[in-house]
Every structure is written in structure tokens, then in C-alpha cells.
Amino acid sequence: MNDPSLILMVGDLTYANQYLTTGGKGASFMEPLTSRIPMMVIEGNHEIEPQVAGITFKSYLTRFAVPSEESGSNSNFYYSFEAGGIHFIMLGAYVDYNSTGAQYTWLQRDLNQVNRSNTPWLVAAWHPPWYNSYNSHYQEFECMRQEMEALLYQYGVDIVFNGHVHAYERINRVYNYTLDSCGPVYITVGDGGNSLAKGKFCWDSQPEWSAFRESSFGHGILEVVNSTYALWKWHRNQDNYKDDKLGDRIYIVRQPELCTNSSTSKGNDATGKGSSIANGAPALLAKWKWFISLPFILTTVM
Length: 302
Fold this sequence. Notes:
Blueprint: E1 6-10, H1 20-34, E2 39-42, H2 58-63, E3 79-83, E4 86-90, H3 102-113, E5 121-125, H4 142-154, E6 159-162, E7 168-171, E8 174-175, E9 178-179, E10 185-189, E11 210-214, E12 218-224, E13 229-236, E14 248-254, E15 264-265, E16 268-269, E17 275-278, E18 288-293, E19 296-301
Parallel strand pairs: 1-2, 4-5, 5-6, 6-10
Antiparallel strand pairs: 1-19, 3-4, 7-10, 7-11, 8-9, 12-13, 13-14, 14-17, 15-16, 18-19
């Protein structure tokens, strides 16, 4: 794998669980990587770490700096940034997400300002998944989905990355539990470490919105080819790259002209809606490549 340009960690950063030395050891372990590569993070449930006097998230807020002020949120729990052709939105699942709250107001403003001419891809990330057919954490954040899903759909978020569930699952484009070609592709890659979710499902049969699921240690690679095509690949950790083994592989295709009931932003269609999933390889019009390994996102520009 090429050296990444960016690391993005989607929650549960060290599992320190109030043991400060564990948090320090985790930071030291990552230092050879983080000392030379920028890293962005968002909080997970293991960053809450409740202490006396109601103090929470102390280690998270002390150890990690994010562009909250630059993105207008003024909160380390949610923010946005741009890298290459992607506008990243990092949402906080463990702070207020109601439609009357500060995070929702900021999200609406941020989405409205995205210029899809400059950043055609819109990628969101937060820790717990909304769509998940595993028994572990099933519908745990249904309230957050009901508050925020319509807004993300309105502005045409292309891909959503989550962790929390210690397994892999790729969700077909969906909105409100109904297949919808204008909805995001949801991808849970919480299988990078810790114990696995043992493959126990809430459903007797795989729901139609669940495209692929497997409880194996693994990681993913997202290669953004151009403004239309992105190649997603999920690898089991035990597989050999030289053998070209893949657990899951799919092209994600943006077709914004197919969805007309959308909002707009400066210079271009803001939503970017109307996306499909294809197996065939596109012509390479550009060479953006983004390497993603959730809960890490690794990127490089070729």
C-alpha cells in the first residue's frame, strides 16, 4: 500500500476507558505514523470516560485537535474539512443531534456551503451505524437517524463510514429503510481490532438493504478515481495482497443528474444525488486515490 496522505479514525481511539496510561501508550504506539501523516478523529463511546463532577471526554478533548473553528462548528465533537476532491463531514453521535440543536444547525449550514464543483464527493462519518443487521448495537441510534437522515439525503451525501459494530457490512443505497438510488452507501468497518461480533444477526434472512456482511478482521480501501467513480475494496486481514484476494469489491458511481429534488450550493448542484453501484471498471479520467481502513481512513494522491 502507498504511504497515506491522511488518517481518519472514526471513534474508539484507544479503549483507554479512564486508564490514562493506556491512552498514553496508544498515542505512543501510533506516533511513528501520526508524526508524519495528518490524522483526523471523531469521538466514539469509549471516549466518553465519565469522571467526577460530570466531566466527560477529557482525554479526547486534550489529546486531539480538529478544525472545528475553521469549519464553523466551534466544537471538537463535530466538524468538516476538505481533502482532494472530498468534503468530509464528521458528526458527533454522543452530543446533542436534535434538529433544534447546535450540531444540526451547523450541519445544515455546512452542507449548504459545499461546492460540488471543487469537492464533488461528499463523505460523512460518525461512530455508530444507523443501518446494521447485526445483533450487536442493532438500531441503537435510531433517534439520530430520524433526526438527521433527511438532511443528509437532501444534500446528496455519497458515502457514510461507521465503526462501533465489530464486523463488516456494506449497505445498498437506502433512505428510511427503503432502497433508493439517491441515498448514501453506508459502510461499517468496525472490524479493525478488538473482539469480533461473532456473526449474530437480528434478521432471519439478510434484509434487501444489506448488500454484504461478514464478521472477520479486515480493512477497506477507497480509491476515488474521478468525480464520478470510486472503487471500494474490503480485505480480510488474513488474506495476502499478492494473491489479489478481496472480501468485497464494488464501484460506487455518482450520477447527480438523476435526482432533481435537490438543494444547490455555490457553482454547482449541491446534492450530487443519483448514484449507483456497478461492477465494471470505468475509464480513468483522473488519478485521485484514497485508501480507507476503518476505523482508519488512509488517503493518498497518486
